[in-house]
Amino acid sequence: MGLKQLIQKCSNNDTQAQSELYQLFSSKLFSVCLKYCKNYAEAEDNLQDTFVTIFSKISQYNNKGSFEGWLKRITINTALQRYRKQGVFEIIDESNIEDVELTVDEDDISIDFLLQIIQELPDRYRLVFNLYVLDGYSHKDIAEMLSITSGTSKSNLARARKILKDRIEEYKTSLNSQSL
């Protein structure tokens, strides 16, 4: 069965087609959930909520653009909606934003460590970092998505980079002291 036919059957509430769609996309969407959630359990909850939204809105998909991109946007928006409800985004003083350059030497730092320290960032910093760095959204887009200003988005990104830079430097220092 082709994707168009599968989407059509899902929009007619065909549970077998919904199960097939879930099997096709759940692992990719779960990895998106992990980027935007604090932990594995929260990512599982977000994935569940995402598919509820997908199945309720699938008839709105008009075959324009990537279906996978449409699914990803719903997944990200579902996670962000949870954080908006929690009031995670505070208005901050944007006057003293200092951008931090963050470079990573892949030989010294594992991807698992990087993902771990990104996931440990405070929510508002992690979400902006992921949206800007990993998913390529502009500060203007992020501001609209999160109901914050572009300056707050830039500030949160700078603070996320500073925290990550500090954690990487601590990690490298501990590695160097262990090898002595």
Automatic annotation (TrEMBL):
One Pfam family it belongs to: Sigma70_r4_2
Annotated ranges, domain RNA polymerase sigma factor 70 region 4 type: 114-163
GO terms (BP aspect): DNA-templated transcription initiation
RNA polymerase sigma-70 region domain sequence ranges: 21-87
Record's keyword terms, sorted: Sigma factor, Transcription, Transcription regulation
Record carries keyword Transcription regulation: yes
A GO term, aspect molecular function: sigma factor activity
Superkingdom of this protein's organism: Bacteria
Family to which this protein belongs: Belongs to the sigma-70 factor family. ECF subfamily.
Name of protein: RNA polymerase sigma factor
Source species taxonomy: Bacteria, Pseudomonadati, Bacteroidota, Flavobacteriia, Flavobacteriales
